[in-house]
Amino acid sequence: QDNSFEQFIINYCNEKLQQIFIELTLKEEQEEYIREGIEWTHIEYFNNAIICDLIENNQTGILAMLDEECLRPGTVTDDTFLEKLNQVCATHQHFESRMSKCSRFLNDTSLPHSCFRIQHYAGKVMYQVEGFVDKNNDLLYRDLSQAMWKANHSLIKALFPEGNPAKINLKRPPTAGSQFKASVATLMKNLQTKNPNYIRCIKPNDKKAAHIFNEALVCHQIRYLGLLENVRVRRAGYAFRQAYEPCLERYKMLCKQTWPHWRGPARAGVEVLFNELGIPDEEFSFGRSKIFIRNPRTLFKLEDLRKQRLEDLATLIEKIYRGWKCRTRFLLMKKCQVVIASWYRRYA
Fold first, then answer.
1. Which of 195, 213, 237 is the last residue of a domain?
2. Which helix (H) or strand (E) holds 115?
3. pTM, to two decimals
4. E runs forming strands in 212-347
């Protein structure tokens, strides 16, 4: 119920993770259909980039305002920080405060004067402004790190490398918010170079008990995790997509015209293959570089046919090998019999 600076930066990280989830699933999914020239009805979804910008914008973001308050001379308090937020973020649609002179919240008794509220992707969260400045400005001062570095204990000395006089940096140490923001940026950059798989965990109840299913709690989690939008995009789109070359290479054995070698463009080979298998036209679409299959059942059917065909080919290879082996043995025995017979007739 009481949220301070720690919960604020945790929720900021959650917003960034939700943003990359949107980028890599909902947005990328629909943009791929456009790139491939597939007929597609666009599905609307909420993009939380506006919330991330409210927090991390270098000029008008909450973290930037907090750093500016920590670094400026004069009297700095949590109230002056909130006052600055009320000036800069007053008109933002996801920022709420009773001190922002905005008529929408002047009479909102659920929002104390010393708090501000952010409408996150997962819902509204109220933050107690008390302690924001001190927690963000929680710095290890240079003289303390130098004293620790001079300790005789090797472990303590290794924990404070910034105290080494040879590496003195006259710059002010970064604030806690700046360090966290840089860490989140590094994490996002790392995730964007990967092919992530998402596992969404749903908490059925707050009691951590078995066989209790809180419908309201589950529905709330489904909404703020973006599962509804993701399911709508998946159901309206195609369950499977693959480039023509690997698709033809995997299933060409199912058609006499494409097996064992197809002479021509891969797309033409896939068209011949699907026509030969009698797959309904509404179950697949041809993109510029990929084949799109709508229903998972169609893919399962292809895999079952391929499995059966592999068994048939394995049986054929085994039959030919056994025939070759028996014939080779027969010819060797025949040759030996001729040699033995010729020598026997010579001395008979």
1. 237
2. strand 115-120
3. 0.65
4. 240-243, 284-286, 290-293
